[in-house]
C-alpha cells in the first residue's frame, strides 16, 4: 500500500493518549478480535464481556500529542505506523463523506494498556473496537503484532488498514441505525444479526478499499495488499479462532462469521465498490 507523498494529513481526526495512565478496573467498550478469543473459549456472547454506560469517561480535552508534528504528509505515513493510521482514517472518512449524505465523522483514539471510553473502561486485551456511545474507534497499535502472533495473520500494512476500515464500517452502521437494531438481539449462530452486522462491516471495508485511491490519500493498492486484507479477515473468522482456541468449531456460538464468510463479504465490497451490495440483512444473503 503506497500513500501519496504530498497529500496533507488531518491529525484532528485522531487523538493520542498513549503513555497516559487511565483509571478503572473493568474491561469494557466493545470486543473485537483478541477479545473474541476469550468469548469463544468461554462460550459466551462477546458483548457480555464489555462494560457499559459512560461512568469513568475521560473529562476535559485530550492533551496535544506529537502527531501534529510527525504526521504532516503521506510521506510521513510511509515512515511511521501512527501516521499510517492517520492517513487511513483520513481516507476512509473522505470516502464515506462523499458516499453518505448523512455521514458524521468519527474520532480514532490511539492508546496503550487501557483507556476510558463512552462504553466503559477498556484494556488492550479487548482489541480494536468502535464505541457507538461516543462515536470513536479505539486502537492500541500493539494489536497488530498480536494479530500475527496470536491469530496467525500474515500481517502487512493493508491488514492494518482493513482493521481500521472495518471499525469505521461499524460507525456507518451506527449512523444508519443498524447497530441499535442488532443490539436488541441476543441470538448467535452463523445467520444471526450479530454475524450479519460484522459481515456488513467487512463489506464496507472492501467498498472503501475499492475507492481508496480516489480519496487522494492512497497512491496504489496492489493485489498483494488485497490478499493481506483477505488473510486478516480469515484470521478473525469464528471458525478459525475456535479451532485455534479450543480445537473444535461450534457454529451455533458464532457472532462474527466464518473465515470464508468474512472473505466473501470483503471481496463483495471490493469488487462492487458499492455499499448497496452490502445488504447482509437480506433474507437470502447468508
- What is the helix/strand order? EEHHHHEEEEEHHHHEHHH
DSSP E strands, number: 8
Going across the major beta sheet, what is the strand order? 2-3-7-6
- What oligomeric state do the depicted chains represent? single chain
Provide the helix percentage: 40-55%
Radius of gyration: 17 Å
Measured between the Cα atoms of the first and last residue, the distance is 31 Å
Overall structural class, as computed from helix and strand content, comes to: alpha/beta
Strand content: 5-15%
What low-confidence regions span 5 or more consecutive residues with pLDDT below 50? 24-34, 36-64
Kindly report the average pLDDT value: 84
User: What's the number of helices?
Assistant: 11
Give a verbal description of the structure.
44% of the residues lie in helices and 9% in strands. It is an alpha/beta fold and 286 residues long. It has one domain (2-277). It has a 4-stranded mixed beta sheet, with helices on one face. The protein has a two-stranded antiparallel ribbon with strand order 1-8. Strands 4-5 form a two-stranded antiparallel sheet.
Secondary structure layout plus pairing:
Elements: E1 2-3, E2 14-16, H1 34-42, H2 67-70, H3 74-79, H4 81-99, E3 107-110, E4 114-117, E5 120-123, E6 129-131, E7 136-139, H5 143-149, H6 157-176, H7 178-183, H8 193-211, E8 218-220, H9 223-235, H10 238-246, H11 259-272
Parallel strand pairs: 2-3, 3-7
Antiparallel strand pairs: 1-8, 4-5, 6-7
Helix pairs in contact: 1-10, 4-6, 6-8, 6-9, 8-11, 9-11
Amino acid at each position: 500500500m503506497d500513500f501519496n507523498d504530498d497529500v496533507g494529513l488531518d491529525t484532528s481526526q485522531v487523538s493520542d493518549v498513549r503513555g497516559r495512565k487511565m483509571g478503572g478496573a473493568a474491561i469494557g467498550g466493545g470486543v473485537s478480535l483478541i477479545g473474541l478469543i476469550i468469548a469463544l473459549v468461554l462460550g459466551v456472547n462477546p458483548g457480555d464481556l464489555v462494560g457499559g454506560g459512560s461512568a469513568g469517561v475521560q473529562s476535559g480535552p485530550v492533551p496535544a500529542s506529537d502527531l501534529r508534528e510527525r504526521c504532516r504528509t503521506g510521506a510521513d505515513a510511509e515512515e511511521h505506523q501512527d501516521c499510517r493510521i492517520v492517513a487511513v482514517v483520513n481516507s476512509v472518512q473522505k470516502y464515506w463523506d462523499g458516499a453518505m449524505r448523512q455521514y458524521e465523522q468519527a474520532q480514532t483514539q490511539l492508546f496503550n494498556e487501557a483507556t476510558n471510553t463512552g462504553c466503559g473502561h477498556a484494556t488492550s486485551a479487548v482489541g480494536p473496537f468502535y464505541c457507538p456511545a461516543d462515536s470513536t474507534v479505539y486502537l492500541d497499535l500493539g494489536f497488530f503484532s498480536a494479530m500475527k502472533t496470536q491469530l496467525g495473520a500474515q500481517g502487512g500494512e493493508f491488514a492494518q488498514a482493513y482493521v481500521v476500515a472495518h471499525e469505521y464500517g461499524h460507525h456507518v452502521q451506527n449512523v444508519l441505525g443498524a447497530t441499535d437494531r442488532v443490539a436488541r438481539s441476543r441470538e448467535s449462530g452463523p445467520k444471526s444479526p450479530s454475524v450479519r452486522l460484522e459481515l456488513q462491516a467487512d463489506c464496507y471495508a472492501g467498498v472503501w478499499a475499492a475507492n481508496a485511491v480516489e480519496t487522494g490519500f492512497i497512491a496504489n493498492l496492489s493485489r498483494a495488499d488485497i490478499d493481506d486484507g483477505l488473510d486478516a479477515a480469515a484470521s478473525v473468522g469464528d471458525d478459525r479462532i475456535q479451532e485455534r482456541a479450543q480445537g473444535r468449531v461450534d457454529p451455533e456460538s458464532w457472532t462474527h462469521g466464518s473465515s470464508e464468510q468474512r472473505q466473501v463479504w470483503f471481496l463483495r465490497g471490493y469488487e462492487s465498490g458499492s455499499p448497496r451490495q452490502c445488504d447482509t440483512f437480506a433474507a437470502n444473503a447468508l
